[in-house]
């Protein structure tokens, strides 16, 4: 009798293990099973040796993805929008409800995804269609959004650096902090800057209580209490007079810090879809399919879906993921037509990446009507840079313009440099006027000084002899231009200007603000100097300043542009 009971129990168990779920139907095969213990006993044979094998094993063990009844995984099968969102909801342990009689089994999953901010009407096509990489990236970004925000607030390029730069502009900081810390009844950690608004409230409430004490001090001496800013008019409040300016300065410091946090929060709350794709790549959740390719329109497979989800789970646990730098540049261009924040991320600060205003790229005046279509930073030393095709001319035909002495030096002999390349539409007016894109504040040195300062004269002399230390225009050879040979400006021969500039990577002088603007260069153009971006990278003020008495413009020495 016991023998038959054992057989019957085994039969029931096997039936339970291979029960299917209707929201995960697979084309051309049976449905995935629901119990992850099956795969712990038997690994699907079609994942052995796969690059995604370990990821799939973890997913099977976790139970958010299933093996099929025929004990295969079908790693190359396409994943539908419905299946991918169901995997994400399950992997993140977002609670779901049971469907009612009129709902499909997917309805509670969709409702849970919306409630958990995992899906906000991001893609609307048929749920049964394969999901593309760009659509999957939207869900992956939302799945890691809070973890990313927490990281960036604490990162060295944002909150801590912003705190440091604000301290540098607050000379009384150390003394004021010591004075406030000396008051034993101010029970708050004054240098905990993760929550500046909480500190502001605590200090304000403390000072309100102290005012009662100050009133008593005056009352004992028969005088009225007065506001510290009015001085010693007819009151005696020496303690108040001592701490009032200290408190006001420190609160001002905290308020600026709180504003930074608020601005960052607004930026994070306002991501547009293409920015979410960029963020997914920046966090290491998705990578490119090869040099110069991101394949956002391609459908993803079951194996790829598992890899992406496992990366998201790892990221949320605080792990750093490898980032495909080429894919990141492509994703940034996909987002807002430039890769400048990827190439110069440590310099410009990722918190400023939303300040590149693409609405300012179209330009119209009485001299020019058209638009800038892209701004690309190319690493001159990297033959695999994904944007070499934006150069338009052979490298051998391009020369550095020295800005002084009208001499040119070949780019093929240059190194440790970035090329700044912009593309534009043709002028819709019948005019030879072109649109120029200018990046100000990066490597211009003293060549833009007002007047002929000593520093400018010395730098012009060095540059004229071929010294590469400032941002320079790039000219294209037309005839037999030789290195160091004088050439005629603009439309003359044997060289002409291009939409390319070159800037050194190392030991470069930068200013505390970076501006990108468009201009035709025509005197009297009413729309000249149209700003695309104007930022002040916080951490620039932490660099060694260059003090030049004859030049009011302040420079900071940057050992590496990125």
From TrEMBL:
Q: What range(s) does the SLH domain occupy? A: 39-102, 257-323
Q: Which residues form the signal peptide?
A: 1-26
Signal as UniProt keyword? yes
Keywords, in A-Z order: Signal
Q: Taxonomically, which superkingdom?
A: Bacteria
Q: What is this protein called?
A: SLH domain-containing protein
Origin organism of this chain? Paenibacillus segetis
């Amino acid at each position: 009798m016991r023998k038959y009971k054992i057989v019957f129990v085994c039969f029931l168990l096997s039936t339970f293990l291979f029960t299917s779920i209707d929201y995960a139907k697979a084309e051309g095969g049976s449905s995935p099973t629901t119990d992850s213990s099956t795969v712990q006993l038997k690994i699907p044979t079609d994942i052995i040796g796969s690059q995604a094998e370990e990821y799939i094993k973890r997913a099977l063990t976790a139970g958010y993805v299933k093996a099929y009844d025929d004990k295969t995984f079908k790693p190359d099968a396409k994943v539908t929008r419905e299946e991918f969102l169901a995997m994400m909801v399950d992997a993140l342990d977002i609670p779901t409800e049971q469907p009612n009689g009129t709902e499909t089994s997917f309805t509670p999953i969709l409702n849970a995804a919306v409630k958990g901010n995992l899906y906000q009407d991001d893609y609307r096509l048929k749920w049964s269609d394969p999901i593309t990489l760009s659509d999957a990236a939207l869900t992956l970004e939302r799945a890691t959004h809070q973890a990313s925000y927490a990281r960036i607030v604490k990162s060295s390029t944002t909150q801590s650096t912003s705190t440091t730069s604000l301290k540098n502009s607050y000379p009384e900081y150390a003394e004021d902090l010591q004075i406030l810390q000396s008051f034993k009844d101010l029970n708050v950690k004054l240098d905990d800057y993760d929550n500046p608004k909480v500190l502001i409230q605590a200090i304000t409430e403390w000072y309100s209580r102290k005012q009662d004490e100050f009133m008593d001090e005056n009352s004992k001496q028969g005088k009225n209490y007065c506001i510290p800013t009015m001085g010693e008019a007819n009151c005696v409040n020496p303690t108040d007079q001592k701490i009032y300016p200290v408190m006001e300065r420190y609160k001002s410091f905290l308020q600026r810090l709180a504003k930074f946090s608020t601005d960052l929060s607004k930026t994070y709350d306002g991501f547009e879809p293409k920015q979410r794709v960029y963020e997914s790549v920046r966090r290491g959740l998705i990578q490119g399919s090869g040099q110069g390719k991101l394949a956002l329109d391609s459908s993803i497979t079951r194996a790829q879906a598992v890899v992406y989800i496992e990366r998201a789970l790892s990221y949320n646990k605080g792990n750093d993921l490898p980032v495909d730098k080429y894919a990141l540049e492509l994703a940034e261009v996909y987002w807002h037509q430039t890769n400048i924040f990827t190439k110069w991320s440590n310099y410009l600060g990722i918190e400023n990446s939303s300040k590149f205003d693409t609405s300012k790229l179209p330009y119209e005046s009485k001299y020019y009507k058209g638009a800038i279509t892209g701004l690309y930073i190319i690493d001159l030393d990297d033959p695999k840079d994904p944007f070499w095709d934006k150069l338009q001319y052979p490298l051998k035909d391009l020369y550095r313009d020295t800005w002084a002495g009208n001499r040119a030096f070949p780019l093929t002999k240059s190194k440790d440099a970035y090329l700044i390349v912009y593309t534009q539409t043709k002028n819709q007016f019948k005019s030879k006027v072109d649109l120029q894109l200018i990046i100000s504040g990066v490597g211009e040195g003293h060549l833009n000084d007002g007047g002929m300062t000593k520093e400018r004269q010395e730098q012009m002399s060095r540059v004229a002899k071929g010294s590469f230390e400032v941002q320079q225009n790039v000219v294209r050879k037309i005839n037999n231009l030789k290195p160091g040979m004088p050439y005629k400006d603009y439309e003359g021969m044997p060289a002409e200007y291009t939409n390319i500039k070159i800037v050194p990577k190392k030991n470069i002088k930068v200013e505390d603000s970076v501006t990108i603007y468009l201009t035709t260069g025509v005197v009297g153009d009413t729309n000249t100097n149209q700003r695309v971006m104007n930022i002040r990278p916080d951490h620039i003020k932490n660099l060694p300043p260059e003090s030049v008495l004859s030049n009011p413009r302040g420079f900071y020495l940057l050992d590496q542009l990125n």
